[in-house]
Predict the 3D structure of the following.
Amino acid sequence: DAKRRGTGRVAIADTAPDNASTGQLDLEDELRDALANDGLALHYQPLVDVHGRITGAEALLRWPHPQRGMLAPDVVIPLAEQGDLLAELDRWVLRTALAEAVTWPEIDIAVNLSGPPTNEPGQLETLSKLVTASGIDPHRVILELTETALLELPLLQQHAMGHLTERGVAFAIDDFGTGYSSLARLREMPAQIIKLDRTFLPATDADETSVAIIRAIVDLCRATGHRCIAEGVETRAQRDLLAHLGIDAYQGWLFGHPVPAAEFRRTVITGLRRR
Ligand code: C2E
Ligand code: MG
Ligand code: MG
Ligand code: MG
């Protein structure tokens, strides 16, 4: 049976006219199963302050698929969207990440939320209940949304977000600068943190345009009271330049790759307990 071979390609086209999309449907069902049976995983990547101290971690979704290997969010998220599973996925991710982080010492846990469910009435309240149920101090929780998702948030959801903020939960604008909004709209976005997308990071400090853009964004964050985290920091040169420009915190391979929970505990959390 071609669809069971796991490539998603049509091997014997005339036996099953719609084989390619059948494969997709299978994968969607498998995702539904994985969600219901804890078959998904989260990897954790450190957030680091200007002194090199680890102040938190971002939870990043992975799907260890038995035949297809480790599937990344760029495969899993669109599949979840097609299967109408985004809201459930967000709940699973938040519940799982908080259950993990509540066992750590006082560092932050950043969790990505999908745009569409956050527009649904009740979803943010549900997420708020998950924060309560986890027993974690809400001040340790960062919820990441894209600027497009934030700007499209209906009024009712803005209220729900306000409640979360009052409880101490921080919101971060993910991939800042890649949306269609103008920088001036930062003022209107109910978030405390912006995460500068890694496409803005200059390859070298001779890249004057990139430097000028980052400088402008950092200045804007100062003016609007947002904390600014740089994503995708890979080299010391980038870190030094970002420090010079006044970035508040970093995330990237220079400081640590995303790793499974057990490895994060062994390599990062153990070190925190010792300091
Ligand atoms: P993001 O939230 O902007 O996450 C940062 C992405 O950059 C991650 O990709 C991370 O592995 C990658 N990255 C980290 N450091 C570096 C670096 O130094 N260099 C480079 N080149 N890349 C780096 P990943 O894990 O593939 O996630 C991609 C996107 O998928 C995330 O972007 C986020 O938007 C989304 N995503 C991840 N996990 C979840 C989740 O649990 N739920 C939802 N709704 N979306 C998620
Ligand atoms: Mg993120
Ligand atoms: Mg990001
Ligand atoms: Mg990004």
User: Anything to note?
Assistant: Confidence is low (pLDDT under 50) at residues 1-18. The pocket of magnesium ion (ligand 2) is lined by residues 58, 112, 144, 174 (CB under 6 Å). The first helix runs from residue 19 to 36. The first strand starts at residue 41 and ends at 49.
